[in-house]
Amino acid sequence: MKLHLLLGSNSEAAPLMVLVLVLTGMVKQGQFTACHSTFLSALVQLIPCRAAVTPFSRIPPSDTCCNAIKALGQPCLCVLVNGPPITGVDRNMARQLPQKCSANFEPCDAMK
């Protein structure tokens, strides 16, 4: 399932809500490293980073984006980049955000 949230489409609201509930349950059961946000709230926090993670974008992350990355934290960022596909987001670019923002996070691949 592709998430259209970053592009502003709510046409798949019901499947998205099911996904959020499943991921929230997985977080509570400890199947992911401690992320205290739901998938949806983590995704919303990273809206300022949209321009920096659009495929083929050369736009660097803004200060607002970097502040959001640091506030969100590595566990929640990894839940997003290792989770279901998000329309309009290049996962490799999203994985590079901590480095580009000088956030001292372990790589998300180490979290698998």
UniProtKB/TrEMBL annotation:
Keywords: Signal. Gene3D superfamilies: Plant lipid-transfer and hydrophobic proteins. Residues 1-29 form the signal peptide. Residues 44-108 form the Bifunctional inhibitor/plant lipid transfer protein/seed storage helical domain. Coiled coil: none annotated. GO terms for biological process: systemic acquired resistance. SUPFAM superfamilies: Bifunctional inhibitor/lipid-transfer protein/seed storage 2S albumin. It comes from the Eukaryota. One of its GO terms (molecular function) is fatty acid binding. The keyword Transferase does not apply. Transmembrane segments: none annotated. This is Clustered mitochondria protein-like isoform X2.
